[in-house]
């Protein structure tokens, strides 16, 4: 167990005792990750902002019941996923443009290589978005949020073997889609 993990858990214990400063510290540490995760899940920056804030209100409410069976960050992402799915069922909002979200300039590359990377990245993002939700969530958590297979299982509340199976099929479908679109393996 790392010092950061112990510190997060200690902060949750403080939150459970009514310490508002501990909520602010956890918010500062985890808000960006929760926001990015929800933005990818919902496709809405406005919705992501609202849900990310609700996650920390939920942290305040649920802290006394936190049992420490998972990392605090994993627990928060699980709350975020539940809230995002609930909100998506309730309302539809403007969706952010995936091309704008996927563009990340690389100053070390030539303009041609950068364009090739942007095209392939945008195509890959479209292919990921076209996956069924169960596969898209696994890919998003693994590759865009750096979660381990175990953490993904905890966030999605599914067995590790199911995570691995979904990851296998998602990667297979992505590889087939990239090949069919004329993209070679590797980057760019």
TrEMBL record:
Pfam families: Sigma70_r2, Sigma70_r4_2. Gene3D superfamilies: 1.10.1740.10, Winged helix-like DNA-binding domain superfamily/Winged helix DNA-binding domain. Keywords: Sigma factor, Transcription, Transcription regulation. InterPro entries: RNA_pol_sigma-70-like, RNA_pol_sigma-70_dom, RNA_pol_sigma70_r2, RNA_pol_sigma70_r4_t2, RNA_pol_sigma_r2, RNA_pol_sigma_r3/r4-like, WH-like_DNA-bd_sf. Residues 123-174 form the RNA polymerase sigma factor 70 region 4 type domain. The keyword Transcription regulation applies. The keyword Iron-sulfur does not apply. Residues 26-92 form the RNA polymerase sigma-70 region domain. Belongs to the sigma-70 factor family. ECF subfamily. This is Sigma-70 family RNA polymerase sigma factor. It comes from Mesorhizobium caraganae. The lineage of its organism: Bacteria, Pseudomonadati, Pseudomonadota, Alphaproteobacteria, Hyphomicrobiales.
